[in-house]
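Figure 6 in text form: structure in, sequence out.
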């Protein structure tokens, strides 16, 4: 049972917080638009946090509905995995259904993918809203036929022809040899057939020997290309695009059948992500690559055409896509994609802001300049020395490609394109565009942590920071990567113990406690606190705005040392204090707070801070602090509570404690 500490008891133990030295304050205001506006694209900073350019009170319901995961069971029982996630607070799952999953003949079912069907059925059963990735990954790009052939004569690396045991099932331009040294279907395409000898679109990347069995496939559709390509065929390209549009509709039908929703519903119960990481597995968009030729200058226009045509399918078949958010996955790794450039039917930019491991000063990104602590741009005259691996990496200014530009409602410009959730204007009206963070996670092995207990704790801290930070700062959802795979020291959210259980069992454990990872536990406890008394009708426009007036630290602890100047001071912990308010209902707030440490692998000894903020009905409010990782209350001192202002002395760790405020009726 969670222990609650009343204000009165807290006052009795206030001696715990007796100051041993003078409290030190922030260098400037806690919130200031200039933390973003003075850090335009081309400028980075070790000192300034663009996330402090604004302070938003998000509805608690937004947090609850935004907790998601990449759903990737393989040998595991899919239903058990979904139940474990749903039981512990998850509401969303991301699953990729490639174009190549459709059957070749009818292009209407994915019966060859029973795990995907089971995942969708589990989503319906356990209340997980699926985000479906529409993709033509080069390893499984479109409907196809598969066959096996045997090489009948040695073919050296670099050869442009191969002798096979037969060719009657091959089609020039559509068939090819797959997965020779990369995961690419039809890596080399058959361009001619003479008897049992096939000529190839490019030299063999590896040697083949007589008797070797090779995998071959026949595409139903030619890969995408542009008119400047000498291999361009207008009729073939029109057929490929029509096939893609048929795929979009087919996936909608399959998903809604599994979810049990009917066409015409105001919310069909799923969302769509168009593509997954343009830099990954995207060869099918660039036909010249199959011929060993470089991509053409306008090859990326294929992505624009896919966006336009996919949006048109949703618009023209509105009854099948009610309530479906269409997200731009081409933007996943692209800082130049902007809400203002998105077609109106798109409701979100996709982002994959994985933490970066770096050691400074050697790892410092050098762009046009660095913003110092005085909000002045200098020339990297001083770079602090430390190592970083922080969940909020792209929420800072450590790289100029900060995700804050797209998360915030403050409009900024990158090379003339307006960024920000309210930057898109259509017919004189703002058409908001949110951000879906569809992949992000903590990988302890990336910083050399390989033992399970340390890894599990590190992921619990990091993933709770990811969710509370990004969902407060403007993300529409956050899908952690991933449910399974990799081990305790890798990215998976579930414990290796439960993953192994789910491989050999078909019933959920009567007591799941031994199988719950620390990450799952802390997420579950945060969701539970947000859900206690939640008003699901509360929107952000109706939440109460809080303002942090002051944060004082009782010591000068820092994340990195400075050089003794005002421009380059230490990176004080008080400057890294994250204050992330959520409103549960008219009179209740849950506010995660923590020190945004630069390296999650280096534990922080909890520290004392005094915080002053306004926006709550302070008089008579019940104040408590809860540690969701250890399931205990944390002491808090109410220094003053007058009008709409509270001053508290709190302890902060390197992961979220929850400040819970219940106002008097």
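Output sequence:
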């Amino acid at each position: 049972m969670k222990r609650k500490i009343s204000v009165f008891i807290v006052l009795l133990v206030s001696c715990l917080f007796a100051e041993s030295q003078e409290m030190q304050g922030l260098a400037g205001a806690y919130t200031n638009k200039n933390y973003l506006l003075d850090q335009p694209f081309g400028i980075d900073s070790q000192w300034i946090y663009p996330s402090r350019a604004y302070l938003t009170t998000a509805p608690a319901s937004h947090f609850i509905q935004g907790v998601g995961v990449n759903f990737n069971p393989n040998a595991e029982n899919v239903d058990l995995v979904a139940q474990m996630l749903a039981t512990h607070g998850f509401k969303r799952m991301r699953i990729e259904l490639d174009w190549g999953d459709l059957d070749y003949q009818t292009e209407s079912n994915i019966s060859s993918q029973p795990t995907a069907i089971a995942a969708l059925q589990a989503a319906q059963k356990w209340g997980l809203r699926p985000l479906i990735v529409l993709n033509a990954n080069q390893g499984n790009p479109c409907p196809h036929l598969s066959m096996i052939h045997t090489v009948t004569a040695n073919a050296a690396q670099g050869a442009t022809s191969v002798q096979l045991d037969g060719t009657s099932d091959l089609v020039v331009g559509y068939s090819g040899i797959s997965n020779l040294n990369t995961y690419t279907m039809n890596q080399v395409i058959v361009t001619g057939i003479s008897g049992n000898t096939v000529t190839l679109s490019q030299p063999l990347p590896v040697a083949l020997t007589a008797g070797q069995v090779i995998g071959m496939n026949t595409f139903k559709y030619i890969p995408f290309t542009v008119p400047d390509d000498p291999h361009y065929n207008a009729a073939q390209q029109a057929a490929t695009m029509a096939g893609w549009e048929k795929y979009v509709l087919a996936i909608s039908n399959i998903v809604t059948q599994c979810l049990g929703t009917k066409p015409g519903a105001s919310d069909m119960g799923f969302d769509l992500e168009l593509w997954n990481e343009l830099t990954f597995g995207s060869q099918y968009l660039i036909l010249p690559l199959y011929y060993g030729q470089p991509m053409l200058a306008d090859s990326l226009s294929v992505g624009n055409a896919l966006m336009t045509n996919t949006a048109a399918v949703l618009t023209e078949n509105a009854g099948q896509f009610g309530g479906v958010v269409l997200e731009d996955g081409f933007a996943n790794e692209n800082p130049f994609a902007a809400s203002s450039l998105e077609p109106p039917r798109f409701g979100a930019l996709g982002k994959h802001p994985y933490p970066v491991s770096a050691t400074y000063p050697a790892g410092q990104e050098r762009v046009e300049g660095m913003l110092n602590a005085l909000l002045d741009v200098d020339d990297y005259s001083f770079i602090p020395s430390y190592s970083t691996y922080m969940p909020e990496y792209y929420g800072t200014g450590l790289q100029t490609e900060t995700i804050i530009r797209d998360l915030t409602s403050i409009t900024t410009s990158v090379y003339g394109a307006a960024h920000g959730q309210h930057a898109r204007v259509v017919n004189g009206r703002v058409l908001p565009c949110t951000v879906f963070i569809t992949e992000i996670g903590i990988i302890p092995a990336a910083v050399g942590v390989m033992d399970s207990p340390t890894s599990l704790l590190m992921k619990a801290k990091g993933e709770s920071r990811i969710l509370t930070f990004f969902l407060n700062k403007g993300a529409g959802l956050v899908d952690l990567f991933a449910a399974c795979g990799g081990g305790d020291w890798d990215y998976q959210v579930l414990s290796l113990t439960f993953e192994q259980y789910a491989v050999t069992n078909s019933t959920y454990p009567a007591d799941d406690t031994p199988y719950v990872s620390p990450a799952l536990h802390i997420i579950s406890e945060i969701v539970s606190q947000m859900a206690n008394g939640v008003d699901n009708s509360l929107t952000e426009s109706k939440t109460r705005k809080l303002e942090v007036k002051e944060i004082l630290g009782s010591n000068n602890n820092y994340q990195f040392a400075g050089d003794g100047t005002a421009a380059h001071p230490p990176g004080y912990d008080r400057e890294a204090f994250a204050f992330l308010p959520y409103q549960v209902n008219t009179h209740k707030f849950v506010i995660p707070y923590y020190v945004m440490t630069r390296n999650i692998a280096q534990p922080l000894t909890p520290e004392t801070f005094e915080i002053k903020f306004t926006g709550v009905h302070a008089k008579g409010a019940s104040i408590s602090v809860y540690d969701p990782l250890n399931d205990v209350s944390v002491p808090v001192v109410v220094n003053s509570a007058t009008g709409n202002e509270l001053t508290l002395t709190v302890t902060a760790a390197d992961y979220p404690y929850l400040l819970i405020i219940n106002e008097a009726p």
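Caption detail: The longest strand covers residues 588-595.
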